[in-house]
Amino acid sequence: MTESFDYFVISKTLQCWYEQNKRELPWRETKDPYAIWISEVILQQTRVNQGYDYYLRFIRRFPNVKALAKASEDDVLKQWQGLGYYSRAHNLHAAAKQIEEIFHGEFPKKYSDILSLKGIGEYTAAAIMSIAYREPFAVIDGNVLRVISRLFMIEEPVNSVRGKKKIAAIAHAILDPQHPEIHNQAIMDFGATLCKPKQPKCNDCPLQVHCLAFAKNVVSEYPVKNKSTKITNRYFHYFHIIHNDHTYLCKREANDIWKNLYEFPLIETSKPSTFIELQNTASFTRLFGANHDILFTHQSHVKHILSHQIIYADFYKVEIPDSENFSLPDKFQKIPAEYITDFPVSRLIHKYMENY
DNA sequence: AATACGGGGAA
DNA sequence: TTCCCAGTATT
Predict the structure, then answer these.
(1) Is A40 one of the annotated active-site residues of the chain?
(2) Can you tell me the mean pLDDT for A111-135?
(3) What average pLDDT does range A237-246 have in this prediction?
(4) Residue A3: its pLDDT value, please?
(5) Do A199 and A51 reside in the same domain of the chain?
(6) Are A212 and A152 in contact (CB under 8 A)?
(7) A287: domain range?
(8) Residues A212, A320 within the same domain
(9) C-alpha A307: how far from its chain's center?
């Protein structure tokens, strides 16, 4: 009894704080489940500032499920270019088609149906249920994990199953079922702007009296977390081929970084390699044969840092005389030079194209 | 239960 | 440098 009352006070305090301090955001102007969905997927593992413009552009280009479903894969990827985690765009596109075919173009209203859509997990399903339909589902994202882990001094790592279950139980317990959409957005905004990972503003915190970690002066030790995996090094060698004002691009199909994005013909090596060493590989011969009239020029060496890998990329300009008879296998698309910007590419390729 | 998946911003 | 962000899918 006293416990549930305490939970109620916590939610009310958060909601009150939210009304005074919430950020004005475009996806908070609508109850359209489609728009809410797009915003939530864009914001997966992505800060509001980074996703803001993408949201506006995406909604303008694909205003509803039908528009997204009938768009081309490349068009959707192109809108996503630069945002990262490209499977989100792929899944968004697939889910729009799911909605068209399975739910007859109407965005589903049941939690289980929403959860069945590609790219929607427990967090996003709960966010849509609560924000678009005002149903009592508690969201659990990075902010909620941190806020609850501090408030209740959760000792289990938040990235362990036990820790997550413990926090999920509390998240549901403190949810105000009368105002789930306000509660959920309140606790996330609170975590993002006040109960931050570094330098939380405990002095301004309206939940200070409820916070066990603050009482023991150990806020900075929470959330407890298992250490992350280590990073790997990769070595990419790209060939920007120029032949009759055309170049070649290839779509990345493997389950790897940048899946479904395009890039120049690539040779990846397990160690740093000079051009001479590259020339002696079977991959090189497959691309360029034994043709001696080709002029290779080293253009740039780039260190590209991702979350769990570092890519060392060399770019070579490959000039082939117009008179030369040259072609590559079908998986490489021959592209007129002026069309290369039509293809969705990684940040790494985009930067090269900009400087070229 | 672990790992892969981008890119950027803050300290 | 390190952390981590309105997480999900795969292994």
Answers:
(1) yes
(2) 97
(3) 96
(4) 65
(5) yes
(6) yes
(7) 232-355
(8) no
(9) 12
Q: How far is the CA of A95 from the C1' of C9 (A)?
A: 14
CA A258/CA A116 separation, integer angstroms: 24
Mean pLDDT of the A228-238 span: 86
Q: Name the helix (H) or strand (E) containing A33.
A: helix A33-42
Q: Domain for residue A149, yes or no?
A: yes
Residue A248's identity, in one-letter code, is Y
How many structural domains is chain A composed of? 2
State whether A181 and A245 are in the same domain. no
A226 — pLDDT class (breaks 50, 70, 90): confident
**Nearest nt to A50, CA vs C1'?**
B8
Same domain, A26 and A68: yes
Return mean pLDDT, chain A.
94
In-domain check, residue A226: no
Point out the catalytic residue in the list A40, A156, A221, A324.
A40
Q: Is the pLDDT of residue A85 over 60?
A: yes
Per-residue pLDDT tens over the stretch A175-185: 999 999 999 99
Please tell me the predicted confidence (pLDDT) of residue A265.
97
How far, in Å, is the CA of A245 from the C1' of nucleotide C9? 40
Residues A147 and A187 sit within 8 Å (Cβ to Cβ)? yes
Which of A162, A192, A221 is the endpoint of a domain? A221
Q: Are residues A261 and A201 in the same domain?
A: no
CATH number at residue A61: 1.10.340.30
* Residue A355 tokens, joined: 């400087």
Asked if strand C contacts A125 at the CB level, meaning under 7 A, the answer is yes
Tokens of A212: 């066990």
Instruction: Read off the tokens for A317.
Output: 């300009």
Which residue minimizes Cα–C1' distance to B6? A84
Give dist(CA A116, CA A276) in Å, integer. Answer: 51
pLDDT of residue A1 exceeding 50: no
* Residue A282, pLDDT score: 93
Q: Which nucleotide is nearest to A306 (CA to C1')?
A: B6
Residues A268/A278, Cβ–Cβ less than 8 Å: no
CATH code (residue A295): 3.90.79.10
Q: What integer is the mean pLDDT of A165-176?
A: 95
